[in-house]
Amino acid sequence: MILVLLGAPGAGKGTQGALLSAHLDVPRIATGDILRDAVRNGTEAGTEASRYMDAGELVPDDVILKLVREALRSPDAEGGAILDGFPRNVSQARALSELLVADDRRVGSVVVLDVAADVVVRRLGGRRTDPETGKVYHLEFDPPPAEVKARLERRPDDEEATIRHRLDVYARQTAPLVDFYEGIGVPVHRVDGAGSIEKVREEVVRATGAGAQG
Ligand code: AMP
After folding, report:
1. Mean of the pLDDT values across residues 125-139?
2. Where does ligand 1 bind, in terms of residues with CB under 6 Å?
């Protein structure tokens, strides 16, 4: 099953994608994470991507598609995958369909996490990552232990002006994917992403018909 997780930045795609990935036992392919790794490792893709990412702009499709093609064709994605942060526009969605058809696969369903803009700004504004463990905290909602606090990092694109720009990019380029998928007959499930992690998780699992275990 290839499942596409849509939602504005800060809607909870990373959190819910990880939970769903464990639940369904398929990998989560998160293009934002792959790009951040590429930036850290100084690869060619990372070097090209970083200026777009820091500005809250979309990275060019050709860079993204190469990364996604590799991830989707890796052996651990044979049984399916959860796509988090991809596709981000209609041309990526078309390219994804072509890539999957070539492998005799298709997108099985889409889950949209709906969250209001002011909630997103609050969530992302307080988000901090521990560079040593990769764990993500929130200064207000999931405060870090004192000994970790000093080393926490803020994502460069989590500054308020950049968050607002990313929301705008989402509204203009990514939100139209709901119509795109409905138009080609792929079931689209809308879930209210404003509740607790557990409540949203239950709704996502219910929406995808993934059962109640896990
Ligand atoms: P995310 O972690 O999903 O919020 O992505 C962070 C940033 O990575 C985005 O603001 C974009 O600059 C870039 N990015 C991630 N996924 C894509 C994609 N599918 N297409 C273009 N740019 C992307």
Report:
1. 94
2. 9, 31-32, 35, 52-53, 56-59, 64, 85-86, 88, 92, 157, 166
